């Protein structure tokens, strides 16, 4: 029996697929490489010491997806595949609705056809919008402020309806807070296209000299140092949360949402200072206007995941900074194949 990982070539999917392999699961990856590169699969294979069945298939391609279920006995699906850039979702909402919601609907139809009813879904803390209070627990009213977030909200609703229609389904909705870091080997990590939107990839690109300075979006929030506060979680801890959720969906039916966060909030300047401390590299920054749509603070109440999944994040912000920096140093151009030789020699040294 295999676990199908959709979006398994992406940032979080690759780390999770690797952990599954290390835990002895058979893994099949489906990805259309719209936001990733095939190179990641070779690196995962070298880390895992085994071949990984890979299908370059778009989730909306029902025939292509059915082939995967024909060729493998799929026991459960961990569903990462989706588009995730908030700004792009505002300028191109139909692309987001079509890809994220359309892809999920086709996936559920194919799963139903092949009698597979266990799913772990990548939701997001974005479903809390601007929370009325922090730490935020799963049972507060949900809202979203952009099309990307609404795709997550709508998919959560769709999955609840799917369960109501057939109580054989077992679905975990994992609401991630802010994933950072990389695999400790330095071989796999986050590889954003163009100018990074997110804080840590931006910091590491400043550190390596690709960008001059960090722009800190807003210094006048009602937080202790005036900069935004988030719940940063190591991608390896996040990956482990999926293994725990998988164990749960294998044993009970129903739909449950879980926050995957640490429960601790750090400000932008906390992250900058920690990065400088851990790496010894100075990060020049300038405080500028707030970024539209940002909120002052958001961090998780992760108690439900600990209680019901037996999962708790245990890596520190220092671990996240150290691993993100190692990844950036070893892979200054991410997975770009032109730098493959440089990567190989730096791993040898
Ligand atoms: P990512 O872009 O690195 O990975 C997503 C993968 O899905 C990519 O490899 C992409 O090529 C693939 N994909 C997209 N649409 C597809 C389709 N129609 N068919 C097949 N493959 C498709 O993103 P990530 O950071 O690894 O995020 C994984 C999931 O977690 C996403 O659903 C994202 O919305 C969610 N999430 C991410 C964050 C974050 O900050 N990274 C936070 C909360 C939730
Ligand atoms: N920030 C900067 N400068 C930058 C980038 C970010 O100051 O160049 C600040 C932001 O203003 C915010 C904090 O750093 O205060 C974190 O910003 P990110 O862009 O890294 O993360 P967000 O919390 O804005 O959003 C992320 C994902 C969303 C997801 C959300 C909740 O990008 O997709 O977490 O999971 F919905």
Automatic annotation (TrEMBL):
GO terms for cellular component: cytosol. Keywords: Carbohydrate metabolism, Isomerase, NAD. Pathway: Carbohydrate metabolism; galactose metabolism. It catalyses: UDP-alpha-D-glucose = UDP-alpha-D-galactose. SUPFAM superfamilies: NAD(P)-binding Rossmann-fold domains (SSF51735). One of its GO terms (biological process) is galactose metabolic process. It is an enzyme of class 5 (isomerase). It comes from the Bacteria. Homodimer. This is UDP-glucose 4-epimerase. It comes from Peribacillus asahii.
């Amino acid at each position: 029996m295999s676990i199908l990982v959709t979006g398994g070539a992406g940032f979080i999917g690759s780390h999770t697929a690797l952990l599954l392999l290390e835990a002895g699961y058979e893994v099949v990856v489906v990805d259309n490489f719209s936001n990733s590169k095939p190179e990641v699969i070779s690196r995962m294979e070298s880390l895992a010491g085994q071949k990984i069945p890979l299908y370059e298939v778009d989730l909306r391609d029902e025939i292509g997806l059915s082939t995967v279920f024909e060729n493998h006995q799929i026991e459960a699906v961990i569903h990462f595949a989706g588009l995730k850039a908030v700004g792009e979702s505002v300028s191109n909402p139909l692309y987001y609705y079509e890809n994220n919601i359309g892809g999920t609907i086709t996936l559920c139809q194919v799963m139903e056809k092949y009698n597979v009813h266990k799913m772990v879904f990548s939701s997001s803390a974005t479903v809390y919008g601007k929370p009325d209070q922090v730490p935020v627990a799963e049972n507060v009213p949900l809202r979203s402020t952009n099309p990307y977030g609404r795709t997550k909200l709508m998919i959560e609703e769709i999955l609840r309806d799917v369960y109501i229609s057939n109580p054989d389904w077992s679905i975990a909705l994992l609401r991630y807070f802010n994933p950072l870091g990389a695999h400790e080997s330095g071989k796999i990590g986050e590889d954003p296209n163009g100018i990074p939107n997110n804080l840590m990839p931006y910091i590491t690109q400043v550190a390596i000299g690709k960008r001059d300075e960090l722009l800190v979006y807003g210094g006048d929030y009602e937080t202790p140092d005036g900069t935004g506060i988030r719940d940063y979680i190591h991608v390896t801890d996040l990956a482990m949360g999926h293994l725990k959720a998988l164990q749960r969906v294998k044993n009970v039916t129903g739909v449950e949402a879980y926050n995957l966060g640490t429960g601790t909030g750090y400000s932008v300047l906390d992250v900058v200072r920690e990065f400088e401390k851990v790496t010894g590299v100075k990060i020049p920054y300038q405080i500028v206007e707030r970024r539209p749509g940002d909120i002052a603070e958001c961090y998780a109440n992760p108690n439900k995941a600990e209680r019901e999944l037996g999962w708790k994040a245990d890596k520190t912000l220092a671990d996240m900074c150290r691993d993100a920096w190692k990844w950036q140093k070893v892979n200054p151009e991410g997975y770009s194949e032109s730098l493959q030789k440089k990567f190989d020699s730096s791993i040898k040294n």
